[in-house]
Amino acid sequence: MTSTVPNAVEHADEQQPPITMFGPDFPYAYDDFLAHPAGLGQIPATEHGTEIAVIGGGLSGIVAAYELMKMGLKPVVYEADRIGGRLRTVGFEGCDPTLTAEMGAMRFPPSSTALQHYIHLVGLETRPFPNPLAETTPSTVVDLKGESHYGETIADLPQVYRDVAEAWNRCLEEGADFTDMNRALRERDVPRIREIWARLVKKLDNQTFYGFLCDSEAFKSFRHREIFGQVGFGTGGWDTDFPNSILEILRVVYTEADDHHRGIVGGSQQLPLRLWEREPEKIVHWPYGTSLKSLHVDGEPRPAVTRLHRTAGNRITVTDARGDIRTYPAAIFTAQSWMLLSKIACDDSLFPIDHWTAIERTHYMESSKLFVPVDRPFWLDKDEETGRDVMSMTLTDRMTRGTYLLDDGPDRPAVICLSYTWCDDSLKWLPLSANERMEVMLKSLGEIYPKVDIRKHIIGSPVTVSWENEPYFMGAFKANLPGHYRYQRRLFTHFMQDALPEDKRGVFLAGDDISWTAGWAEGAIQTALNAVWGVMHHFGGETDASNPGPGDVYEDIAPVELPED
User: How do residues 528-539 score in pLDDT, each as one tens digit?
Assistant: First the structure.
């Protein structure tokens, strides 16, 4: 069991097929597409060497650029800040360089199977992430309303936590056919997935997460709903998600996105950086030894994009921060979509008006973290009186909310994520400097662990991030509000452009906030692969008949379309 409150009914058959985060909105097997020996497709030889703009050097942009390069195109990557996007790994000034902090993505589920493809491709290692009560987490403390409870498994916690766990299981079964959908996803039973999901989308699109709980007989107790909000399941409290659409939550629990997490050894930013430098063995047009890095002057992406507009022949003209202007036959936009509203001067003609509306309505979650380096994993010391760990992975209703203890062995320096918070809890930190934040966090944790002097173990200055205050992000990740399904469908399906007027084609949206599974690197990769298919199709290319791409099978698995009137 990996969560404080389990997110699913326990499976009786432990030999079930592994699950993948490929649905339920668009149940396409991206992992099979990537693994097929025929590759992702080809473009006409007359188009080889053609430049295409890829705006945004996060995981989605780098994956799209890498795969287009392999097809023989010349991706020109624009990046305003640094390669990696929200896969951002930083060090601590003056400390051992192996000590790192994950400011963005830090834990990845096995169900992210397309992500796993690229992790293995570049030779990265993973290890279990210390989530609450995960099997490899030594201990967890749940501190609510001034009372602390220590546990190594959920059985060590008071009965009320098991009652809340059971309430969540019942709620999912009664209101969302959890077991049936989970089985269909495991078996890749597309007709059954679509049948269940079509009914639930129509039923639940207007429902909040909190409303879904309140409608359940299992959660008639306000106390249970309050505990569930503060402690949650999988990665901790979910009350900051209560106003969001329940459909967003169901996508997470159906695909076990919040279970069995692993971290990337050495930091997640290595993935896009290694893809940037990787020289693929199978590549068209370009000589062996070509990489994205080698295709760019000085091995660096071009700077931030400041203007996007259409020019004669339905071409896309890009102006960058240095004032350079280049025109391309196609472009992929992978940055956060709000950039198109504020940071980049855009022509209205870039997208249909309904797509502009969807971009404007995109709802982002705020998120903040603060890390400190420490001399050693002192939390593994035992309290002489109780025999317990002196400090534990901590969930609390205090300002810190979630505290994670990260080590690389008992005799090495370690890292504490003193606080990881979302939404209103993140905004509470926004006016404070890193040191001010640390002081408040140490005070809160001191109230939970009065015998522990965390400060004496700190060996460097804290590092922090508030993603809502990052100028090229303005938020951590998309989270649809009730009634936003139609908007999300427009953005996700934008790669299918044959039905668009000719003067609205050629720019392809991709990235985490375009995906159905926002907040997960898997969604960034899936939309990148959609955009790769779209660009290939735009240039007159095609996939191998034995390995149809997402656009080839689109009509059979297209997301549910709700009426507009």
Answer: 999 999 999 999
Strands 402-406 and 364-365: unpaired
Which value, to the nearest 10 degrees, does the dihedral of the CA atoms of residues 175, 366, 467, 518 take? 20
Q: What is the pLDDT of residue 127?
A: 96
Peptide bond into 6 cis (omega under 30): no
SS3 string of 481-535? CCCCHHHHHHHHHHHCCCCCCHHHCCEEECCHHHCCCCCCHHHHHHHHHHHHHHH
pTM of the model: 0.96
For residue 326, which amino acid is it?
A: R
For 373, the token pair is: 């380096």
User: pLDDT tens, 284-319?
Assistant: 999 999 999 999 999 999 999 999 999 998 999 999
Q: Which residues have a Cβ under 8 Å from the Cβ of 456 and sit 6 or more positions away?
A: none
For residues 468 and 365, the answer to whether their CB atoms sit within 8 Å is no
Distance of CA 142 to the CA centre of its chain: 26
Cα 65 to the chain's mean position, in Å? 19
Q: What is the CB neighbour count within 10 angstroms for residue 413? A: 20
Please report which helix (H) or strand (E) contains residue 51, including its range. Answer: strand 51-55
Per-residue pLDDT averaged across 399-408, rounded? 96
Report CA dihedral (283, 67, 532, 323) to the nearest 10 degrees. -110
CB 347 within 8 A of CB 461: no
Sheet holding 463-466, edge to edge: 147-151, 140-144, 393-396, 402-406, 414-422, 367-374, 463-466
Give the model's pLDDT for residue 1. 29
Which letter, b or e, does each residue of 168-180 get, where b requires 16 or more Cβ atoms within 10 Å of its Cβ?
bbbbbbebbbbee
Specify the DSSP class assigned to residue 244: S
13: pLDDT strictly greater than 80: no
SS3 content of the chain, % helix, strand, coil (to 5): 35, 20, 45
